[in-house]
Each structure stands twice: as structure tokens, then as C-alpha cells.
Design a protein that fits this description.
Blueprint lengths: L1 H11 L8 E6 L4 H5 L6 E5 L13 E6 L2 H8 L7 E9 L17 H5 E9 L3 E13 H9 L30 E6 L2 E4 L2 E5 L8 H7 L5 E4 L5 H13 L4 E2 L5 H7 L1 H6 L7 H19 L8 E7 L5 H9 L6 E8 L4 H4 L4 E5 L5 H10 L5 E5 L4 E2 L3 H12 L3 E3 L4 E4 L4 E4 L6 E3 L8 E3 H6 L10 H11 L4 E3 L5 E5 L11 H6 L3 E4 L4 H4 L13
Parallel strand pairs: 1-2, 1-3, 3-4, 7-10, 10-11, 12-13, 12-15, 13-14, 17-22, 18-23
Antiparallel strand pairs: 4-6, 5-6, 7-8, 8-9, 15-21, 16-23, 18-19, 19-24, 20-22
Protein name: Glycosyltransferase 2-like domain-containing protein
InterPro entries: Nucleotide-diphossugar_trans
């Protein structure tokens, strides 16, 4: 890492023989040891400490950050860095799933002054961005454009949602439990240093990724500074790291809150129960400590040709919690109004109107910021829409959904579980869970007005437009599978049985199948 950083500085600053240069570092214990011998005219700044007065303009500036979290941290702060025509950002450690650090397009002088931009991988997991401007531009503009951040004011939350989130969660860990001790700025497994704890207590994406392979993490935090320790635990919980930190000191308990402290008393051994535990952890920590003051309103689009299932579907939508929900029901060949009740928007479509056209008509009547598709015969957790709202927020994806991980087969009356790699960017999610902002829906033209494969066509349109699709956890949704001829996906029961990693008689939700005493999902048993 040291050689990589010094090579960067030699290339873009030292060899250019600049009269005044600034090297600003964040996320490192000893920046001076990292950067090596700089020219006397170069100012070295540790952004993790109080920053001295800096020149207003520099001939060149290099910002060296350890993780994307450090980049977001300084970009969202109020620190004023010098203006310069030559600017370099070196991100040293980034997880494999992290996107390249490319600036977001923005109007204004800085964009007009941009002369050239070069980005490339550097080392095992790093990135370098080099920008040249025709006139001196504040370095803060480039940093904020890389993270889509604006200066943050007011009380600082314990969790930075951009770095501490469930992306990359492993449902099948490779290693057993680990016990970590926080001591002298390090996180130790026995006498072995596992991670360096930043002074703030905020772990970066790469730090969290190193802990993913463990079945669970037990934190012994009594030697840590209270606020840094609370940030560490809240960040791990928000990331969904199966976490145990019993006997929480009073000061940390006051910072974390009772609900989260109760969840970190134990971690189940059963892998399915462990994942449920992770889902409860992340949901609680994100809502309490990630600074989320408002979630978008959601319009649920229900298109159905089965009057007998309208009540079943509406009951589940009505059970959704934590989100502002609007319901639009489109009846295929019948009027759903008598079945829908007060507060539900309804429309009747002729029997020859294709499914895609029905959904578009329902979307025209929707006023929510987000649209989501709902299937009339499947089962949904009461936290289904809340979890998708959170996943959409922390992933930044244009479309979010879940896999069909739990499938109930009506013929043999069994529930099977398929293995999916969740909490990742994918090309596909279950059609009954499509969740996307109205702006994205309109941008891709909505659903194709066809009778079948409308879900797949919408996913394809988002991909072709350059959008990302994110697959959240699959334990809040159970797909009902009847006779094959009734489905677009016309595979027989054997197809699903042969690919199952688990199987249970009757219909089961994840909580019924696991050994946990309480349900993280609470899927209705109707």
C-alpha cells in the first residue's frame, strides 16, 4: 500500500516540479509514513485531525483516502480545500462490488473548466482519478461529485449509510465465530490485528467485507472510547454482520438504544435463523442510526383477474409497516371497487386488455414516489416494502427487488428454498417484488403492453438504459406455484424440487422453517 501511494504522488506531483502542492490524507494512522519524502513546498494534511490554514490555490492537490467511507466522510464535511488546476484522488482500498469513482455530471463552472479526466484501477483494490482543469477549481467540487454528497450540517448519525450497509452479506459463512477486542486503535482477534479502527469508529466498506466470512462477530468493547465504540457496533449492525456485544455499558446503551442492544445479546447457530437475525439487526440499526428522516411514498400496483384473491392481497398490503402506502387495484374483466373498500383506487379493464397495459393504467393513477408490483396470490412479510425502501436507499440502484427464494408448490404441498446470492447487484429479481422510483419507470417507458413476460421486459429495459438492479434479501416473500400452465415460467414441480437446498412439508415462511423463537418476517399464514 505504501509503495502504491508513493508511486501515485511521484507521478502526479513530485515529478511535475510543482511550486505549491497539497497532499491531503484520510483514514490512515500515520500519513507522513505513507507519503514518504515530499518536497519542502508540498503541504501534508491529515484530514482526520484539525486542519491548519491552507493556501487558497495550489498548483496541484492529491487527496489520498483509505476507503470509500473516508471519501464520503470528507466530501460530506464542511472542510475547504484549495483550488487547483491539477487534482488527483487516490482511493486505496475498495471492495469488489464498489463502483468506479467517476464524477456525476453537474452544471456550472467546474464542469465547463474540465479539460481531461482519467480514471483507472491501481494496485489490488484501489482506484485513481486524475482531473485537469483550464482554471483553478475547488477540490471540494470534485470530491462531492464523486460521492453525490453535499456538506452535512447538524447532528451526525452513528451510521454512514453509504459505507455501512448490507451489500455483500454472506448467507453461508466460510469461517466460524470470531471474538474481537477494541484496544489502542485496533480491532484484535486475540493478539492478531484484524482491522485498524479509525478514530471516529466508522468502518469502511473494505473493513466490513473482511468480516463477512465469519459466522458471527462478538465485540468486547470495554476499552474503547464510548462514541467510537457505539459507531462501530451500530455500523456492523447496519451492515447486517451477525453481531453479539453483551453487557453493553450504560453510556453506549444510551447511544445505541434499547431495541438494538436487545438484538445483540445473542446470535443463532442455525444459518437460516442467523440470516433472520441479520435482517432484524440491519433494519433496526438503519432506521435508528443512519439519519433516515423520511422514506419515499409507495404506490402498490395490483393487477388481477381473480376477484376471490383481492381481499387476500389487500390484507397483506394493509399490514405493511414503516412506509406510506397507496393501493391501486386493476380488475381484469371485473370491477374491483366493491371488493376494495375505502381508500383504495380501483379501475376496471376489459378482458382483452393485456397485463402490461393494465399495469400502465394503474401507474397513471398512482401518486407515490415509488411504484411496486404486487402479485395477488403470493405471501409478503409486513416489512417487505420497508426492507425494499431501505435497500433502494443504500444500494442506489434504479430497480430493487428480491429473489424467489422461498417457493410454495401447491401440487405436492411443500415449500422449497433455493439458494440465491442476495444483497448484490443482479440482472433479475422476482416479478412480484419490482420496486422502482416513478422517474425510472417513466424513463424506460413503463411496462410493455403485452400479456406475458412484462416483468422480464421491464428488467431488460432498465438494464438497457444503463440502470442497476439490486437483489435484496429473499426471506420476506413466498412465491406460490400452482399448475405450470397457469404461469409464464412453465416448469414442472420437479424443476423446483431438484434445485432446492431445503424442503418442508406444507407452506412455510422462513421463520417457520428456522429454529428461531421469534419471527423476523411474520408472513401471514392465510
Amino acid at each position: 500500500m505504501i509503495s502504491e501511494i508513493r508511486a501515485t504522488l511521484d507521478e502526479v506531483l513530485v515529478e511535475r516540479d510543482l511550486a505549491v502542492a497539497v497532499v491531503a490524507c484520510a483514514g490512515f494512522d500515520e500519513p507522513a509514513q505513507l507519503v514518504g519524502g515530499l518536497r519542502d513546498s508540498t503541504v501534508l494534511v491529515n484530514l482526520d485531525e484539525p486542519v491548519p490554514e491552507l493556501p487558497a490555490v495550489a498548483d496541484g492537490i492529491a487527496v489520498v483516502v483509505r476507503t470509500p467511507a473516508d471519501l464520503s466522510w470528507i466530501a460530506g464535511g464542511t472542510l475547504t480545500l484549495p483550488s487547483s488546476r491539477r487534482q488527483v484522488v487516490h482511493l486505496v482500498e475498495a471492495p469488489a462490488w464498489w463502483r468506479p469513482p467517476l464524477p456525476f455530471a453537474a452544471a456550472g463552472f467546474a464542469t465547463r473548466a474540465l479539460g481531461s479526466l482519467r480514471a483507472g484501477r491501481h494496485g489490488d483494490s484501489g482506484w485513481i482519478l486524475e482531473a485537469h482543469f483550464s482554471a483553478a477549481v475547488p477540490a471540494g467540487w470534485l470530491l462531492r461529485s464523486l460521492t453525490a454528497s453535499s456538506p452535512a450540517y447538524g447532528e451526525e448519525p452513528l451510521v454512514d449509510l453509504r459505507s455501512a450497509n448490507p451489500i455483500g452479506f454472506l448467507a453461508e459463512p466460510e469461517l466460524g465465530p470470531v471474538r474481537l477486542t477494541v484496544r489502542d486503535g485496533a480491532i484484535l482477534d486475540g493478539a492478531t490485528r484484524v482491522l485498524t479502527l479509525p478514530r471516529s469508529g466508522r468502518l469502511g466498506e473494505s473493513d466490513i467485507e473482511r468480516l463477512r466470512p465469519f459466522h458471527s462477530v462478538t465485540v468486547d468493547w470495554h476499552d474503547a472510547e464510548p462514541l467510537a465504540a457505539a459507531r462501530l457496533v451500530a455500523g456492523l449492525a447496519a451492515a447486517g454482520v451477525p453481531l453479539r456485544a453483551a453487557d453493553v455499558p450504560a453510556e453506549q446503551r444510551a447511544l445505541l438504544g434499547t431495541a438494538l442492544c436487545e438484538l445483540i445479546e445473542t446470535v443463532p447457530q442455525d444459518l437460516l435463523a442467523r440470516e433472520e437475525h441479520s435482517i432484524r439487526l440491519r433494519r433496526t440499526a438503519l432506521l435508528a442510526h443512519a439519519g433516515i428522516t423520511r422514506l419515499p411514498s409507495v404506490s402498490v400496483l395490483l393487477a388481477t383477474r381473480r376477484p376471490g384473491l383481492v381481499g387476500f392481497a389487500l390484507a397483506q398490503i394493509g399490514d405493511q409497516r414503516g412506509v406510506d402506502v397507496e393501493i391501486i387495484v386493476a380488475g381484469h374483466g371485473f370491477d374491483p371497487a366493491p371488493l376494495a373498500g375505502v381508500g383504495v383506487t380501483t379501475l376496471e379493464c376489459a378482458g382483452n386488455v393485456p397485463l402490461g397495459a393494465m399495469l400502465n393504467l394503474a401507474a397513471e393513477r398512482a401518486s407515490g414516489e415509488v411504484l411496486t408490483k404486487w402479485d395477488d396470490d403470493d405471501w409478503y412479510s409486513p416489512d417487505h416494502l420497508l426492507d425494499l425502501s431501505l435497500a433502494s436507499r443504500y444500494s442506489g440502484a434504479e430497480l430493487t427487488g428480491t429473489p424467489a427464494e422461498l417457493i410454495y408448490l401447491e401440487g405436492p404441498d411443500v415449500t422449497v428454498r433455493h439458494r440465491w446470492r442476495t444483497e448484490t447487484r443482479q440482472d433479475f429479481v422476482a416479478g412480484g417484488t419490482l420496486f422502482l422510483p416513478r422517474t425510472v419507470f417513466d424513463a424506460v417507458g413503463g411496462f410493455r403492453p403485452i400479456p406475458k413476460t412484462v416483468d422480464g421486459e421491464l428488467l431488460r429495459a432498465v438494464r438497457q438504459a444503463g440502470g442497476q438492479i439490486y437483489q435484496a434479501h429473499g426471506l420476506g416473500y413466498v412465491l406460490r406455484r400452482g399448475r405450470p400452465e397457469l404461469h409464464t415460467w412453465q416448469e414442472g414441480d420437479d424443476y423446483f424440487l431438484d434445485r432446492a437446498v431445503s424442503r418442508w412439508d406444507g407452506r412455510r415462511s422462513a421463520s417457520h422453517a428456522s429454529t428461531s423463537a421469534s419471527s423476523a418476517l411474520d408472513i401471514a399464514s392465510t
